[in-house]
Amino acid sequence: MSMASSNRDQGSSTEIIDEALRLVDTLQRRLLTAGVRRQVNNLTSPPPRANDVWAEAIRQETEPEAPVADQLLDIARETLPQVGRHLSAAGALVFGAMSRSLSAVERSLRYRPGGDSAEPDPDTGR
Asked: Which stretches of sequence are listed as region Disordered (predicted)?
């Protein structure tokens, strides 16, 4: 590698670093400006007076609670579809495992070591 290509590589990496530093500086200025604007807006706008803490506490105490039966039905409506999907997936896994196990047992009975087979081969009739 010659000195000229080494200086050129250093120059391009320095340019990339300078560009990255300019980008970071620009982002910092924009974020600072946005933060100052937000603080000024928060200071100049009056706080919402409609729902203070006391009004919210009173509202929660005066709301009638739903009957227990309705609460239970809501819980069942929300969770039963999920439970059904999980049970269906679990059933499919169990069925698949049982099917594979049964196939393995059948193969082991059909092809015993030593070449003896328990059942005649359907292709040859032996």
From this structure: 106-126
